[in-house]
Design a protein that fits this description.
There is one protein chain. With 144 residues, the protein is an alpha+beta fold. The chain has a domain of 43 residues. The chain is 69% helix and 14% strand. The protein has 1 helix and 2 strands, in the order E-E-H. The chain has a two-stranded antiparallel sheet with strand order 1-2. Strand 1 and strand 2 form a beta hairpin. The longest helix is centred in the middle third of the chain and has 99 residues.
């Protein structure tokens, strides 16, 4: 009954034994053409129509719920993708920050090395100057 009812056809026919008209129902199945099987004579068509209509409405509601669930899943996937992108951006920022810190440390080390070289050069020039003075004094003493 769930896949029945693409269309609902109400027919009135005269029975051969009775001159009075009676109602019978015929359904169009979704897989085949309309079946000519009559369910019952004097069948309550209105109740059956309401029942089939409510089944249709339930199916529509189920489809709508499924669509809503799919939309929610898509939104969740988009949110997850956004979160992943944000995490990747944060990681990139952290990496660049670490690289900047390393570069600053390298610069500081280089500056310290340059300073030490200058100090060494100053000490060397001072010692050379002292040696020259001592040599000059020795020469002067020898000449006297």
């Amino acid at each position: 009954m769930t896949s029945l009812y693409l269309g609902y056809i109400r027919e009135h026919r005269n029975s051969s034994s009775n001159s009075s008209s009676s109602n019978s129902s015929r359904y169009c199945s979704s897989n085949s053409s309309c079946s000519s099987r009559y369910y019952s004579i004097n069948y309550d068509d209105d109740d059956d129509y309401r029942r089939l209509r409510s089944q249709q409405q339930q199916q529509q509601q189920q489809q709508q719920q499924q669509q809503q669930q799919q939309q929610q899943q898509q939104q969740q996937q988009q949110q997850q993708q956004q979160q992943q992108q944000q995490q990747q951006q944060q990681l990139l920022q952290q990496e660049t920050h670490q690289e900047q810190q390393q570069q600053q440390l390298l610069l500081q080390v280089l500056m310290m090395l340059l300073l030490m070289l200058r100090v060494c050069l100053c000490i060397r020039t001072a010692s050379l100057h002292l040696q020259q003075q001592q040599q000059q004094q020795q020469q002067q003493q020898q000449q006297q």
